[in-house]
């Protein structure tokens, strides 16, 4: 299977640059994966599409202010995007710079810190703090919200709240689990009233999620690693939902990858650590029965995951409809419910 099999035409005007004023005001395209039929709805309709006893699984990661700027010893400007913080003195990062720095080179972050290039790690760099506060304090002081590259504007004060789910509580992500951005307190109240259960996992989304697939054969792609945690309590909640006949509904592809990683041995079990699980057509799902997800980039691993779940032709047909109906795409865009 080729990466080109997952391409579709998307007018740039449909790429959402700002969120809607109200989180749950987004549109919702409901795709039935068995029949391939779709229905145009509002996100506020989601509780009506769920049943008492269903289990929603959310990713509770919290986005850190992971973008900052520094200057080289020569004076050149460097943009730093955190991939993950290893500890308070070391981080793995992307560097946007005219000329690649050498190992041992120093970078200065205004009057706040001095950094040292420690070496390469795959397509990323390792940076150490040699003077100044640790990474947490540094990012809190001068970091910016790491908006995706297809949002063609600088981050604004409002993004600190809107590029974050209302239930985010475990810091570590450098990109939001965007399917969760549509949930607000009213939606949660209606879910509780209906008897829909809720549970949480943690997956710290890395900047690698925006890296393009650089091979044409899908099977040759090597997935970037992301840290995740599936607790014993979540495993028990999933098993209880399935035993009572309820569906396990993953909120976002990150919740899907978390659950499926934890079930990779054939049976769901607690898991904590890095995952490189690459879900594409041909994959057999073990834990997830339905999902809430946003619309994804052409040729992306996220679109491949959704296609593995609902069928490539079904998904691409639904995407073509979404384009014709002028749904809003990507992180600040509209959502899908696939059942």
TrEMBL record:
Any one Gene Ontology cellular component term annotated for this protein: cytoplasm
Keywords, ordered alphabetically: Cytoplasm, Glycosyltransferase, Isomerase, Queuosine biosynthesis, S-adenosyl-L-methionine, Transferase
An example Gene Ontology biological process: tRNA queuosine(34) biosynthetic process
Subcellular location: Cytoplasm
GO MF entries: S-adenosylmethionine:tRNA ribosyltransferase-isomerase activity
SUPFAM superfamilies the record matches: QueA-like
Superkingdom to which the source organism belongs: Bacteria
Presence of the UniProt keyword Cytoplasm in the record: yes
Reactions it catalyzes: 7-aminomethyl-7-carbaguanosine(34) in tRNA + S-adenosyl-L-methionine = epoxyqueuosine(34) in tRNA + adenine + L-methionine + 2 H(+)
EC number: 2.4.99.17
Pathway field: tRNA modification; tRNA-queuosine biosynthesis
Family the UniProt entry places it in: Belongs to the QueA family.
Subunit architecture: Monomer.
Biological role: Transfers and isomerizes the ribose moiety from AdoMet to the 7-aminomethyl group of 7-deazaguanine (preQ1-tRNA) to give epoxyqueuosine (oQ-tRNA).
Family annotation (PANTHER family): S-ADENOSYLMETHIONINE:TRNA RIBOSYLTRANSFERASE-ISOMERASE
Official protein name in the record: S-adenosylmethionine:tRNA ribosyltransferase-isomerase
Gene designation per UniProt: queA
